[in-house]
């Protein structure tokens, strides 16, 4: 099993203490988001790889050496300010943390996500080109892989259109991004790719790749994993332990948050001693081992 920590919330940034308690106790429980009475119990003895995805790796860095599993890290690093990402720490701190991660998990197991890209009057194409080039230069020697995505029409995006003020990307804009990003990456010995995007920019030098490729999974485990059925990309299947509407970064483009009141409610119901990320088990819950 490949454990995804997490696409539904930033476990690393806000719930690292809980995660490490679950790891040390040997199991974690996850409510089915579509059938809350159904709980999956995941034993860490069944986990082959842990994939961490976060905007802030700092809270877990010191604990990584105690995890006796192969680790892959995806760190989202964007050039937006606190009008778009209200609670994301200073990006200089994140870059310093990325450099530490590279030494801990290995440069081949570390991915940077420049995700999502959108443009408006402040965050123009030129702004993104300069920001990407600066990021690449700062991470030279610590990172090999960059993943780029474009903003999607999520509920939270629609709710925040008055802040985001998104302009449509033209074919020329895609070309400018593709050529500029490819040149910057190549100059510093990195690859750049999209994943699950209609415009993959391979014609401008992007490679064809996946966020969690089957080749990497096999290299780390010697096992072959099925394709992720929930998505149309070629990533291998992963099991997510997160909860939607529980991330306090409050990024205006986020797909996993769409109700800030519910985020605050879920945060208030978090207990670091519970087997669940939010709340506790109930007597009528149906618990099934996920393997």
Count of DSSP helices?
A: 8
Instruction: Report how far the terminal alpha carbons are from each other.
Output: 7 Å
What is the global morphology?
globular
Largest beta sheet: what is the strand line-up? 9-8-7-6-5-4-1-10
Beta-strand segment tally: 11
* Gyration radius over CA: 19 Å
The percent range for strand residues is 15-25%
Q: Whole-number average pLDDT?
A: 95
Provide the succession of SSEs. Answer: EHEEEEHEHEHHHEEHEHE
In words, what does this structure look like?
- The protein is an alpha/beta fold and 291 residues long.
- It has helices at 11-25, 91-105, 125-138, 155-159, 161-164, 171-187, 214-221, 260-268; strands at 2-5, 27-32, 35-43, 49-54, 71-76, 110-117, 145-150, 191-194, 207-208, 239-240, 286-290.
- α3 (125-138) runs parallel beside α6 (171-187).
- The chain is globular, with a radius of gyration of 19 Å.
Keywords:
eight-stranded parallel β-sheet; single chain; 291 residues; alpha/beta; three-stranded mixed β-sheet; 11 strands; globular; 8 helices
Question: Helix and strand layout, with pairings?
Answer:
Elements: E1 2-5, H1 11-25, E2 27-32, E3 35-43, E4 49-54, E5 71-76, H2 91-105, E6 110-117, H3 125-138, E7 145-150, H4 155-159, H5 161-164, H6 171-187, E8 191-194, E9 207-208, H7 214-221, E10 239-240, H8 260-268, E11 286-290
Parallel strand pairs: 1-4, 1-10, 3-11, 4-5, 5-6, 6-7, 7-8, 8-9
Antiparallel strand pairs: 2-3
């Amino acid at each position: 099993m490949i454990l995804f920590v997490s696409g539904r919330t930033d476990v690393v940034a806000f719930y690292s203490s809980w995660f490490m308690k679950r790891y040390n106790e040997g199991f974690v429980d996850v409510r089915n988001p579509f059938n809350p009475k159904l709980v999956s119990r995941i034993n860490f003895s069944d986990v082959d790889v842990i994939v961490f995805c976060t905007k802030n790796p700092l809270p877990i860095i010191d604990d990584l050496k105690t995890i006796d599993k192969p680790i892959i890290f995806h760190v989202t690093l964007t050039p937006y300010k606190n009008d778009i990402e209200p609670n994301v720490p200073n990006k200089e701190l994140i870059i310093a943390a990325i450099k530490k991660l590279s030494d801990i998990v290995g440069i081949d197991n570390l991915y940077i996500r420049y995700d999502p890209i959108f443009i408006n009057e402040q965050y123009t194409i030129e702004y993104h080109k300069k920001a990407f080039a600066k990021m690449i230069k700062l991470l030279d020697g610590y990172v090999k892989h960059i993943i780029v995505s474009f903003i999607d029409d999520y509920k939270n995006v629609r709710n925040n259109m008055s802040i985001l003020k998104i302009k449509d990307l033209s074919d020329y804009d895609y070309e400018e991004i593709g050529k500029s990003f490819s040149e910057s990456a190549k100059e510093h010995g990195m690859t750049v790719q999209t994943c699950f995007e209609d415009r993959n920019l391979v014609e401008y030098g992007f490679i064809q790749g996946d966020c969690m490729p089957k080749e990497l999974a096999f290299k780390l485990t010697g096992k072959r994993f099925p394709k992720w059925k929930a998505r149309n990309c070629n990533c291998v299947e992963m099991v997510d332990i997160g909860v939607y509407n529980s991330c306090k970064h409050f990024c205006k483009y986020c797909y996993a948050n769409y109700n800030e009141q519910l985020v605050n409610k879920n945060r208030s119901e978090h207990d670091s001693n519970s087997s669940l990320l939010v709340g506790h088990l109930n007597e009528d819950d149906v618990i099934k081992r996920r393997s």
